[in-house]
Write a sequence for this structure.
């Protein structure tokens, strides 16, 4: 690595109705923000399985942003509350694993909050930049292919769950 | 993987091409991404020429998947899906990457823009190959409609539908339809007599061949989905056989028991224990108030039964249940008035001559307890001065932050009625006078000319503690006149509190029963606050009138008619398409743990007790995917957003991440 500034890679899971539209609005309003967040559209933040977050980190992301409608404004009535519950458990778990809490962020963004969303992205990118690279895949491949071992475990689990016809 | 993917990068004029190296991106996609057989860039992909380009490749190159890197899918996903369908490719096999809203328009640095654009295209290419063809399902629409609530909004909706030739079931909780409008004397700003314009509509409902009126009834259970709901209605026992009753009213006349009428007369008057809320009630059948009936309490009396000429009284009657099949539901459940006792400093309940606006409406009504005379609580004395206190419970951070929308106009109306009926002086204490609809400001001007007094300030207190000469025996309204900048004490004989409109006490419960949501304030939430004001997030359920938020009669009528028009549209079309982005449970994997059951706010997941597994009702499922994420056995799949699809997208997004190379290079 040279003296280059570290550019963190952040995966965003954005709900289709409010937060993805906030990102659209940030675009239409030509608000410039850090290019480090790459967004996956899901129908609802409630779709975000905590394993998505782990998978993203395991695949090389330095942080994950989950974005949804504000509490009380969920397109699916109340599913963002379920996101909220999962998020606090996930954060706790990530803490146990030794991960800095700033690497995973839950962001509410209404479809009108393009400016606020862009600011939140900039803020998160700065925070993660300060934390430095996470480099889970790197750590694991140096460490005797632990990543592969974990992934194999998941596959074995899935196979075990398979019901023979 | 054997899919043949076509990648199309749009320049969007210079909107994308000005920042992203579009040609380089297409070339990179063609060379480095697995499965890509064609990769092109074009000036405007959404133009008909751009679409034809895709269609030609589908036909000639045998593309099985299409990726369009252009604007947000919210703008043109439909366009490209249609283009694919036109060329014979299932529309759900087309994926968009938002290169404009998420890259070129928001990124300063060109190199960073190129890298992000590549990630988004790689993600789309990875995901699209796992996408599956989906078909929306088409279900028939039952032409019958349920309207819940027989106030003016529900009446309007029911009549519009019935006049168009369709069956309507109108369910009303109270013994008669009419709602709040039936309680009023005059309506602002035209001062039409409320009963004169409402009762003809009420009798139209009562006599309409296409309307089945179920008054004194409640909806107990709703199952099913748009096009075919099953509804269970409980018809409360009236203790009277409707088919025998002629509505002559002798039973009411002969009933020796009177109780205070807290509903229709707002506590200002009495009614008999067997009663009709008001003389023009529709339907005409009386109801026995079981709580207060001497026969039910003590086992004697039966005066009504003795005098009934048609033997219609039936003390043995039980609640009955009706099962209805309907295609659509209109909720017009209205509002409750704010309980003025919750603001003790205004003295309601402590000082007899403090009245609520609803009490005052009844007092002004010629058919009301005072026969239209404005009198103090003693029922004899005419007041010489009246203060009208605005915003009681609304625009108040302690209670409701919203404006109740109708009270300013109602207060002006009261001012006019008082001055017409008495020689009393009327003072309005207001925060702002809000008269935004047709003819309303003119009405305000009229009241200014008629001599109603206006003090701009929120009332702090109403008390009977006389301090100054002229205050003895009066109610003193303490208010800061914000225009003069000083405190004022206004001695009056009568105070009228303009109470806020509140959501019905059971609005949340009702919302849950019908699968629709309430705003933070408790009003039912519309699908879109501006562009879809009567539909809800649950297909086939519409809302009209004050259950959606405070509104006056014209707005309620407009919404009732609008909801009916939406329902008519569904009936005319005859079928409804159901979005295929839904969850499915693999019964072989499901352990029957039922974790998913309670996660669904649309009640779309049923537990099949005999099979020991849960099942998604796809017509009710909205496709949020919350259950998919929660299933511990991974038995639930979310169509179009499966784990595999999202993981493939993730792999693509992180194509350049450190150590993400699927075949790690030897260190």
């Amino acid at each position: 690595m040279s003296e280059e500034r570290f550019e963190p890679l952040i995966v965003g899971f954005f709900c289709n109705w409010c937060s993805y539209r906030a990102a659209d609005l940030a675009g239409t309003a030509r608000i410039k923000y850090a290019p480090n967040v790459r967004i996956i559209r899901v129908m609802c933040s409630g779709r975000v399985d905590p394993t998505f977050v782990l998978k993203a980190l395991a695949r090389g992301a330095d942080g994950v942003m989950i974005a949804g409608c504000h509490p009380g404004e969920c397109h699916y009535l109340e599913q963002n509350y379920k996101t909220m519950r999962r998020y606090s458990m996930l954060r706790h778990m990530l803490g146990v694993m030794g991960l800095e809490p700033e690497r995973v962020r839950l962001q509410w963004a209404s479809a009108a909050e393009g400016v606020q969303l862009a600011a939140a992205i900039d803020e998160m990118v700065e925070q993660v930049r300060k934390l430095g690279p996470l480099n889970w895949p790197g750590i694991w491949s140096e460490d005797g292919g632990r990543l592969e071992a974990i992934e194999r475990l998941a596959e074995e689990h899935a196979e075990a769950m398979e019901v023979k016809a | 993987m054997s899919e043949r993917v076509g990648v199309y990068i749009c320049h969007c004029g210079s909107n994308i091409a000005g920042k992203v190296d579009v040609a380089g991106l297409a070339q990179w996609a063609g060379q480095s991404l697995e499965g890509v057989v064609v990769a092109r860039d074009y000036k405007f992909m959404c133009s008909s020429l751009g679409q034809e380009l895709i269609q030609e490749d589908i036909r000639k190159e045998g593309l099985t998947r299409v990726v369009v890197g252009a604007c947000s899918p919210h703008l043109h996903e439909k366009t490209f899906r249609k283009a694919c369908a036109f060329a014979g490719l299932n529309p759900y096999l087309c994926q968009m990457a938002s290169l404009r809203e998420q890259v070129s328009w928001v990124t300063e640095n060109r190199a960073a823009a190129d890298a992000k654009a590549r990630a988004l295209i790689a993600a789309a290419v990875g995901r699209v190959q796992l996408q599956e063809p989906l078909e929306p399902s088409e279900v028939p629409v039952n032409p019958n409609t349920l309207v819940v609530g027989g106030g003016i909004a529900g009446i309007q909706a029911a009549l519009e539908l019935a006049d168009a030739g369709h069956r309507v079931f109108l369910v009303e909780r109270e013994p008669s339809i009419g709602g709040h409008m039936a309680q009023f004397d005059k309506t602002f700003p035209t001062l039409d007599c409320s009963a004169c314009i409402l009762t003809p509509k009420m009798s139209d409902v009562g006599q309409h061949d296409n309307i089945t009126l179920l008054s004194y009834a409640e909806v107990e259970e709703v199952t099913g989905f748009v096009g075919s709901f099953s509804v269970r209605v409980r018809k409360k026992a009236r203790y009277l056989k409707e088919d025998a009753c002629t509505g002559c009213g002798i039973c009411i006349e002969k009933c020796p028991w009177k109780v205070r009428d807290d509903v229709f007369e707002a506590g200002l008057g009495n009614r008999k224990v067997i009663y009709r809320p008001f003389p023009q009630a529709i339907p005409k059948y009386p109801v026995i108030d079981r709580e207060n009936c001497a026969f039910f309490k003590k086992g004697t009396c039966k005066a009504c039964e003795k005098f009934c000429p048609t033997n219609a009284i039936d003390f043995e009657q039980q609640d009955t249940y009706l099962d209805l099949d309907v295609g659509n539901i209109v909720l017009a459940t209205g509002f409750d008035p704010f309980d003025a006792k919750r603001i003790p400093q205004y003295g309601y309940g402590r000082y007899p001559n403090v009245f609520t606006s609803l009490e005052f409406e009844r007092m002004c009504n010629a058919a009301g307890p005072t026969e239209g005379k404005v009198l103090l609580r003693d029922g004899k004395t005419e007041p010489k001065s009246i203060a009208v206190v605005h915003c009681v419970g609304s625009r108040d951070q302690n209670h409701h932050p919203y404006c109740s929308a109708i009270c300013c106009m109602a207060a002006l109306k009261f001012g006019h009625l008082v001055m017409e009926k008495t020689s009393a002086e009327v003072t309005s204490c207001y925060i702002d006078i809000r008269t935004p609809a047709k003819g309303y400001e003119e009405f305000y001007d009229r009241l200014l000319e008629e001599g109603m007094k206006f003090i701009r300030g929120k009332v702090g207190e109403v008390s009977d503690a006389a301090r100054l000469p002229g205050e003895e025996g009066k109610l003193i309204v303490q208010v800061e006149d914000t225009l003069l900048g000083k405190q004022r004490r206004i001695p009056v004989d009568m105070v009228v509190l303009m109470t806020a409109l509140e959501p019905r006490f059971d609005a949340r419960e009702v919302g849950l029963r019908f699968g629709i949501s309430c705003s933070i304030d408790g009003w039912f939430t519309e699908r879109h606050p501006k562009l879809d004001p009567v539909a809800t997030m649950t297909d086939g359920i519409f809302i009209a009138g004050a259950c959606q938020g405070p509104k006056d009669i014209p707005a309620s009528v407009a919404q009732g008619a609008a909801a009916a028009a939406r329902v008519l549209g569904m009936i005319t079309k005859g079928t409804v398409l159901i979005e295929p982005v839904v969850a499915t449970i693999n019964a072989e994997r499901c352990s029957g743990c039922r974790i998913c059951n309670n996660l669904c706010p649309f009640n779309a997941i049923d537990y099949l007790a005999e099979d020991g597994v849960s099942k998604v009702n796809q017509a009710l499922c909205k496709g949020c995917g919350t259950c998919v994420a929660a299933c511990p056995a991974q038995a639930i799949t979310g169509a179009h957003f499966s784990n595999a699809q999202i993981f493939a997208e993730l792999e693509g997004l992180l194509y350049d991440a450190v150590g993400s190379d699927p075949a790690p290079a030897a260190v």
Observations:
- The CA atoms of residues 8 and 125 of chain A lie 7 Å apart.
